[in-house]
């Protein structure tokens, strides 16, 4: 039962990551390996805030904002397009600096947890679109393979930075609420409930975003037919940035959720992200509900195999995927599509 | 000739290196060579074949561990003991084992299409890595040490400066054989994998076999690299065979230029040197606290990708304005044997009650018609009438829901398109399916695939050249026949759309078909070009080839064809001579709208 709970809660996290990966892939064709880094950064930034320190990630935000401001600012000046300059500088220079100043001014350790989480999101989520702008936008038209390698490069950079920012030691953040609920024989950890609840809320929220809002529909249109969407006036740049914003939000929030359950190191993100990827693949990088189901399967598989054969835990998770993959590829008989 | 001179100069330079450079750089070059060997395999697998593998490091591990166990163990079971006698025998054993593992993994995971495949490779990459670290007879985490050096006769490759020659001999052999392979009949089949599977199958290429072939070749390269690595280090442990190294090999291939064999060597050199220099220099600048080299390494990689998307090698070629030399067509090459065409008037194709449903949509309903040898039949009808569906079913791309298609006396319903191609059917596509980066000549040569038999090994060592000359001469003959000789050595993608359609016809003709299916061949052609095409088709007809056309250009159709089948909403509404069809009430209604 404990194992089942563990499995479901890590499965819920993988589901969020899988959603983010499916989203990014279908809109931009990027296989976003650094998704896991958002998780690790989320948990570690929150931990620094809770320890009353100014998280070093805010300087990353300042630096990347500055790069974007310079690159885009110069382009705008060249095109004599001064209209958007204000918001560009506002978001990429003023906002990060203001946030840095704020973090220096307040004693973050004493803040209520909800505010700490909000600060974490405020620092990390804007990194998503900035990463897209810097790393992917200039090569958005290339092959999936080149984009994949770019992803690996971004992953290396972020892990390296993670070590610089957070050091090699792992941390756990304080749980949202202590204790557990007991139903007869069964006791359920409150943090597990938080994780599952928040994940479900997120999934429902995303579904609403994609079916109800104009931007959500625009993203869906882009993923179905990029050139068609482009002709309808949906900018691929905006779509890309928006996707990365959402993915960053999902990633960081997963980090915040998982922080109290497992010890997070600066490089934990990779394996977590990889398992999200496994889940996404089970969903065929296309279907959100299947990806979510796959995630819970991976979570359960992992927690049971870590109990029965812990030495082979990772091997089992990855090799048991092969039959699933085979089953899927045999069943999805598809004729080569026209490119 | 020029190529041989270049290669010779390169060999001289490489041979002089250990005498000129300090041992530190020789060691670096050893590592570069070993990585390059793996990366060459990846160029073939990923860059050319489009199959992304993260798992090559595991094959390097198989090669290294096989030789380590065989050459150090004192208690080998009898059946394998022979392989422990010398590292060379252990290499053979390693290659056999790797080949078997690759065949098994390949037959399991290569069925995975698209993005399942990279994940599959991660899965077995990680699994093999963990096995190295947990199995006791492999020394678990501490590995195996005390490997003997490789020897040839009484000479032993002890020092870095000695094994250097062995490593680079392997690299050069790999580069040259891969180059040769890609420039051959098999190579064209491999290059067609990326973006042209339906086309390749229609030309008779067994694409699943091609996938397995390149997978096994890439694995064997990795295994040889592992063997060299093990005997250079004289010890093995699991750490160099993990997923991260698998990713690094992929890096090398992509940074160097994923589609270029020399790119693998450049990429391996660049990545290894960058890694090494950053590890040497950055701690002096920033201190040892952080892992700065990986950050800078990542940033530089991004920069390279942004500046040279296709990798360093093509960027270098552009920089030095190196142009690919056009292929030499040997005019005197003996013509290929021709198929004996069926006697004029003999029925060659029969379509019986063919129905094709896509869910609720009936694309073809109870279609019936037949064709005779030496006849030109046009299939016409408004857009959406089901003509292309009919085409796909005849050529084996699609299978009818019910009904039967008989071609050349055999029922072909449900057969693969490459088997049907072997029976003598060849086709062009409505949406042009050429390989835009390959020359017109090579594109057309794909059509000759079934008329040659040169396999992988003969191609790699250039033992199939007489046959290759004949295939290329045949391709050139067909190009001349359709009037495109001026563009023979141009990239196919650089031609106008109408001309690309003509290339498709030449490619179909290169297969020496008895039935030719042409999907809108005249679309995008100018008046004179259409006339020339009509002339060509009439000539083919006179030779006894049957031609089935889908075409919208009525002037073109009416003056050319013997009979017409008219389709609307998936059904045949009329069949007859051109003059009859022009008068047919139902046809007029279908095309011009009914008169109420």
TrEMBL record, chain A:
CDD domains in the cross-refs: TM_PBP1_LivH_like
Q: Which domain of life is it from?
A: Bacteria
Q: How does it sit in the membrane?
A: Multi-pass membrane protein
| UniProt keyword terms in alphabetical order | Amino-acid transport, Cell membrane, Membrane, Transmembrane, Transmembrane helix, Transport
Give GO terms: molecular function aspect only: transmembrane transporter activity
Q: Which InterPro entries match?
A: ABC_transp_permease, BCAA_transport_permease
Q: What is its main location?
A: membrane
Q: Where in the cell is it found?
A: Cell membrane
Give the stretches traversing the membrane: 12-34, 54-75, 87-106, 112-132, 144-168, 188-210, 242-265, 277-300, 312-330
Q: Name one GO biological process term.
A: amino acid transport
**Which cellular component appears as one GO term in the record?**
plasma membrane
**Family statement drawn from the similarity comment of this UniProt entry:** Belongs to the binding-protein-dependent transport system permease family. LivHM subfamily.
What is the name listed in the Swiss-Prot or TrEMBL entry for this protein?
A: Branched-chain amino acid ABC transporter permease
Source species of the chain? Zoogloea ramigera
UniProtKB/TrEMBL annotation, chain B:
Query: Chief localization class?
Result: membrane
Provide the ABC transporter domain boundaries.
349-594
Matching entries from Pfam families are given as: ABC_tran, BCA_ABC_TP_C, BPD_transp_2
Q: Where in the cell is it found?
A: Cell membrane
Membrane topology field: Multi-pass membrane protein
Q: Name one GO cellular component term.
A: plasma membrane
Keyword vocabulary terms for this entry = ATP-binding, Cell membrane, Membrane, Nucleotide-binding, Transmembrane, Transmembrane helix, Transport
* Keyword Cell membrane recorded: yes
Transmembrane domains' residue ranges? 29-51, 58-82, 88-110, 122-143, 163-182, 212-230, 250-273, 285-305
Query: CDD domains, from UniProt?
Result: ABC_Mj1267_LivG_branched, TM_PBP1_LivM_like
Alphabetical list of InterPro entries matching this protein: AAA+_ATPase (IPR003593), ABC_AA/LPS_Transport (IPR051120), ABC_transp_permease (IPR001851), ABC_transporter-like_ATP-bd (IPR003439), BCA_ABC_TP_C (IPR032823), LivM-like (IPR043428), P-loop_NTPase (IPR027417)
GO terms of molecular function: ATP binding; ATP hydrolysis activity; branched-chain amino acid transmembrane transporter activity
UniProt-recorded name of the protein: Branched-chain amino acid ABC transporter
The upper taxonomy is:
Bacteria, Pseudomonadati, Pseudomonadota, Betaproteobacteria, Rhodocyclales
């Amino acid at each position: 039962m404990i194992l089942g709970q563990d499995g479901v809660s890590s499965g819920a996290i993988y589901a969020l990551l899988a959603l983010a990966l499916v989203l990014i892939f279908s809109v931009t064709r990027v296989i976003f390996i650094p998704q896991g880094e958002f998780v690790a950064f989320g948990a570690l930034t929150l931990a620094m805030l809770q320890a009353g320190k100014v998280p070093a990630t805010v300087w990353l935000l300042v630096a990347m904002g500055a790069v974007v401001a310079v690159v885009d600012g110069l382009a705008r000046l060249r095109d004599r397009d001064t209209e958007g300059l204000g918001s560009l500088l506002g978001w990429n220079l003023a906002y990060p600096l203001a946030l840095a100043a704020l973090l220096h001014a307040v004693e973050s350790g004493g803040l209520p947890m909800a505010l700490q989480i909000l600060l974490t999101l405020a620092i990390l989520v804007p990194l998503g679109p900035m990463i897209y702008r810097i790393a992917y936008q200039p090569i958005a038209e290339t092959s999936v393979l080149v984009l994949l390698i770019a992803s690996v490069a971004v992953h290396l950079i972020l892990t390296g930075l993670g070590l610089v920012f957070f050091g090699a030691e792992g941390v756990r953040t304080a749980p949202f609420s202590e204790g557990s609920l007991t139903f007869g024989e069964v006791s359920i950890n409150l943090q597990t409930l938080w994780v599952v609840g928040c994940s479900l809320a997120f999934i429902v929220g995303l579904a609403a975003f994609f079916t109800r809002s104009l931007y959500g529909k625009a993203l869906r249109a882009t993923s179905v037919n990029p050139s068609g969407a482009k002709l309808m006036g949906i900018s691929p740049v905006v779509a890309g940035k928006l996707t990365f914003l959402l993915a960053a939000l999902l990633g960081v929030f997963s980090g915040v959720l998982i922080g109290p359950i497992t010890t997070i190191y600066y490089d934990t993100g990779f394996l977590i992200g990889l398992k999200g990827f496994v889940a996404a693949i089970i969903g065929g990088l296309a279907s959100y509900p299947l990806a979510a189901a796959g995630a819970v399967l991976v979570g359960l598989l992992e927690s049971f195999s870590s109990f029965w054969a812990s030495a082979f835990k990772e091997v089992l998770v990855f090799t048991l995927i092969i039959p699933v993959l085979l089953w899927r590829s045999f069943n999805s008989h598809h004729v080569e599509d026209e490119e | 000739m020029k190529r041989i001179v270049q290669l010779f100069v390169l060999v001289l330079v490489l041979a002089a290196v250990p005498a000129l450079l300090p041992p530190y750089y020789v060691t670096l070059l050893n590592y570069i060579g070993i990585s390059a060997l793996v990366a060459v395999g990846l160029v073939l697998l990923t860059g050319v074949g489009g199959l992304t593998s993260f798992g090559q490091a595991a094959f390097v591990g198989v090669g290294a561990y096989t030789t380590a166990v065989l050459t150090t163990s004192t208690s080998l079971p009898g059946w394998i003991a022979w392989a422990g006698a010398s590292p060379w025998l252990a290499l053979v054993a390693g290659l056999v084992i790797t080949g078997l593992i690759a065949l098994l993994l390949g037959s399991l995971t290569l069925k995975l299409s698209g993005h399942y495949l990279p994940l599959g490779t991660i899965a077995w990459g990680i699994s093999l890595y963990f096995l190295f670290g947990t199995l006791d007879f492999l020394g678990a985490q501490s590995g195996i040490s005390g490997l003997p050096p490789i020897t040839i006769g009484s000479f032993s490759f002890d020092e870095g400066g000695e094994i250097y020659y062995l490593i680079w001999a392997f690299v050069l052999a790999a580069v040259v054989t891969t180059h040769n392979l890609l420039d051959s009949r098999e190579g064209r089949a491999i290059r067609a994998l990326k973006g042209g599977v339906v086309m390749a199958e229609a030309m008779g290429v067994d694409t699943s076999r091609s996938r397995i072939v390149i997978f096994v070749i890439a694995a064997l390269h990795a295994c040889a690299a592992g063997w060299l690595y093990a005997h250079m280090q004289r010890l093995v442990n699991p750490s160099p065979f993990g997923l991260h190294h698998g990713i690094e090999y992929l890096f090398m291939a992509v940074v160097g230029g994923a589609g270029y064999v020399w790119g693998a060597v450049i990429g391996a050199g660049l990545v290894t040197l960058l890694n090494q220099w950053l590890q040497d220099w950055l701690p002096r600048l920033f201190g040892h606290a952080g892992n700065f080299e990986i950050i800078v390494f990542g940033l530089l990689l991004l920069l390279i990708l942004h500046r040279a998307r296709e990798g360093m090698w093509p960027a270098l070629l552009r920089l030095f304005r190196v142009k690919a030399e056009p292929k030499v067509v040997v005019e005197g090459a003996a013509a290929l044997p021709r198929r004996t065409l069926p006697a004029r008037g003999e029925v060659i194709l029969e379509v019986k009650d063919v129905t094709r449903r896509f869910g609720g949509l009936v694309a073809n309903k109870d279609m019936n018609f037949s064709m005779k040898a030496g006849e030109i039949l046009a299939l016409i009808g408004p857009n959406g009438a089901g003509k292309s569906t009919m085409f796909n079913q005849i050529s084996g791309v699609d299978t009818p829901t019910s009904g039967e298609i008989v071609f050349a006396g055999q029922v072909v319903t449900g057969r693969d398109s490459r088997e049907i191609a072997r029976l003598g059917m060849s086709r062009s596509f409505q949406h042009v399916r050429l390989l835009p980066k390959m020359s017109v000549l090579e594109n057309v040569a794909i059509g000759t695939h079934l008329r040659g038999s040169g396999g992988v090994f003969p191609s790699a060592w250039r033992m199939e050249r007489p046959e290759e000359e004949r295939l290329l001469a045949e391709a050139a003959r067909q190009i001349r026949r359709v009037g495109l000789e001026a563009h023979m050595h141009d990239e196919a993608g650089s031609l106008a759309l109408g001309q690309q359609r003509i290339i498709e016809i030449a490619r179909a003709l290169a297969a020496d078909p008895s039935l030719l299916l042409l999907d809108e061949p005249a679309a995008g052609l100018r008046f004179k070009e259409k006339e020339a095409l009509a002339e060509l088709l009439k000539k083919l007809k006179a030779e006894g080839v049957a031609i089935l056309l889908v075409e919208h250009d009525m002037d073109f159709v009416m003056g050319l064809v013997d009979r017409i089948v008219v389709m609307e909403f998936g059904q045949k509404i009329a069949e007859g001579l051109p003059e009859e069809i022009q008068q047919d009430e139902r046809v007029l209604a279908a095309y011009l709208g009914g008169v109420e």
